[in-house]
Design brief:
Blueprint (H helix, E strand, L loop, with lengths): L13 E3 L18 H4 L4 E2 L16 H12 L13 H10 L1 E2 L2
């Protein structure tokens, strides 16, 4: 299996994962971030132990592994039968932003 992008950058590479949680109120602006979203604001993605749970991200375990792989590998192939959330996960992954 491919190694993570850069093991030495494990604490520096952080992403905002709040796009993975549902925001039904027409995707509230950044000023409307609540306390639950704060723990998704700067996740060190190369440290899997520091990721929020699948429940926190409103994903199942397989979807969480797909997101983790897509954000930490140079190439990720997300596959599965119809209705398992491949398109949903792919769209969410491209919306995730790095933290400056």
């Amino acid at each position: 299996m491919d190694e993570p992008i850069d093991g030495k950058a494990s604490n520096r590479l952080r992403y905002t994962l709040s796009v993975l949680g549902p925001r039904t109120d027409e995707q509230a602006g950044e000023e409307d971030v609540d306390a639950g979203d704060m723990r998704l604001a700067a996740v060190p993605v190369l440290q899997r132990a520091r990721w929020p749970s699948a429940d926190t991200l409103h994903l199942d375990e397989s979807q969480l592994r797909a997101v983790q792989t897509a954000l930490t590998r140079r190439l990720a192939i997300i596959q599965g039968p119809p209705g398992t959330g491949k398109t949903h996960i792919g769209l969410k992954v491209v919306q995730v932003r790095p933290v400056a």
